[in-house]
Amino acid sequence: MMDFNAYPLVDMPFMNEEHAEFIALVNAVEQDLRDGKSALVSLSSLIEHVYAHFAHEEKAMLAASFPPYPVHKSEHERVLNLLDDQLAAYRQNLDADALLAFITADLPDWFEQHLGTMDRVTARYLSAGVATPCHG
Q1: pLDDT in tens, 69-115
Q2: Which of 19, 38, 47, 100 shows its CA 20 to 30 Å from the CA of 85?
Q3: Helix ranges (DSSP H) in 35-119
Q4: What residue ranges define each of the domains in the chain, with the CATH number in brackets?
Q5: Closest CA to 69 of 21, 3, 134, 2
């Protein structure tokens, strides 16, 4: 299970709050899979949250004229495609082991890397006060 306290905070409170929700939703998918339950609902909820979170970040980046916006947005799109592919594969074959591997290894590894690089830099830039309309 992912532990929110194991990850560094970034300089934007809305991002930290949404990251905490992300971790809780990842953990819900993992718990469903470990309990032998279908993870369709929990995985769909996770993906819905990620779409909303990325849209929130992107709105803030655009409002601040964040120079590396295209790179950050491109990474968001890559991960959304990956999540959509995971959902489609799970719907098709209900392979709990494959989804569990993704949820417990691949996704946390990506999150740690993304948080420590793109989100850290983005939050620092946004916290300089350039994008205050999007902080909530």
Answers
A1: 999 999 999 999 999 999 999 999 999 999 999 999 999 999 999 99
A2: 19
A3: 40-63, 69-93, 96-101, 107-114
A4: 12-127 (1.20.120.50)
A5: 134
